[in-house]
Amino acid sequence: MPTVVGRSVQVPAPGKDFELVQKEFPEPGPGQVRIRVQACGVCHSDTITKDNIFPGIQYPRVPGHEIAGVLDAVGPEVQVFKPGQRVGLGWHGGHCDYCTPCRRGDFILCENGQICGISYDGGYADYVIAPANALAFIPADLNDVDAAPLLCAGITTYNALRNSGARPGDTVAILGIGGLGHLAVQYAAKSGYRTVAVARGQDKAPLAKQLGAHMYIDSTTQDPAAELQKLGGAVVILSTLTSADALAAAVGGLAPAGKLIINGVPEKPLNVNTAPMILGRRSIIGWPSGSGMDSEDTLNFSALVGVKPMVEVYPLEKAAEAFDRMMSGKARFRVVLSVGK
Question: What confidence tens digit (pLDDT) does each residue in 313-324 have?
């Protein structure tokens, strides 16, 4: 397992432009692996590294937490994983095994958890060195470019829905049809929920139906809450929006004991009338992504039922252009770096 040399697109300092460099990737240490990256999604959360949004990020730092690749080397004390296996690595970049959440098996809430591309160098590179306990196996019938976005946008929406308590036949509303939402609609429909897509503009209705939605609500001409109540209310409303006002306006569409699950981060605090929440035992919860095993479940389910992200692909050398495209909001709907040679 010798040291290898490869390309890396790093942020040299907070707010600075990306730079393409050659760097050495050493042998993995105990409990670690080295992944030869084949594809890496470009996610809005990569702005955390670009703009130093989280405290304590050390620079230069390589972003990227939607990684599909092949195990190049395996360090000591690593079980299960072997060189040559296809693996994925997402937002959850490793856990300590010893804090209270870890001891309860809730690894995504690890008090010492790492985030790939933030705590250590991520997937805008030829190689990544990462903790083995964060990995997921990629099924053979899922290609790398399609797998990469499922390791963040996919797992975040799928894991939220499957843990929501909704049952097949229940009404589930998805707010927004973007990078997260276009996957959430597919997961909801493929899981057997009566799926209602909510977005701005009638032009998105054909796409919503194409993705599997049973109904479309145009929030520019219709009141989403009122329309959902005509259906008896939504057992779950999954929000992928960044608009706090649009999110708050939909809360009234919850059925009694319904849940509003927040995947997208609103741009400002949420203003919600709490009386209907109390009287109807309704709730608002946030949902992060999930562990490596959750990622593996997401990939396997996606391959089984045919959930696929809509992607725009760029070579690693054009990572800056790919990042700008993602930030423009014009990408349909995920941007992926094709890294493998």
Answer: 999 999 999 999
How much is the average pLDDT of 223-228? 97
Both 281 and 295 in one domain: the answer is: no
Q: Is residue 159 part of a domain?
A: no
Give Cα separations from 201 to 51, 146, 215, 263, 288 (angstroms): 32, 27, 14, 22, 28
**CATH at 177:** 3.40.50.720
Among the ranges given (16-30, 85-99, 238-252), the one the predictor scored with the smallest mean pLDDT: 238-252
For the four alpha carbons of 132, 290, 119 and 5, in that order, the dihedral sign comes to positive
Q: Is 155 helix (H, G, I), strand (E, B) or coil?
A: helix
Mean pLDDT for the stretch of residues 186-206: 97
Per the domain annotation, does 49 fall within a domain?
A: yes
By percentage, how much of the chain surpasses pLDDT 90? Answer: 98
- Provide the Cα torsion 161, 166, 171, 172; round to 10°: -10
Residue-range definition of the domain harbouring residue 30: 4-152+289-338
Q: Which two tokens stand for residue 35?
A: 């992944």
Give dist(CA 22, CA 7) in Å, integer. 5
CA distance 159 to 173: 15
The mean of the pLDDT values for the chain is 97
Q: For residue 205, which of 214, 329, 227 has the smallest C-alpha distance?
A: 214
Residue 1: what pLDDT? 61
- Return the closest-CA partner of residue 21 out of 340, 317, 315, 313: 317
pTM of the entire predicted model: 0.97
Q: Quick one: tokens of 19?
A: 């730079």
Q: b/e string for 309-334 if b means 16 or more Cβ within 10 A?
A: bebeebebebbeebbebbeeeebebb
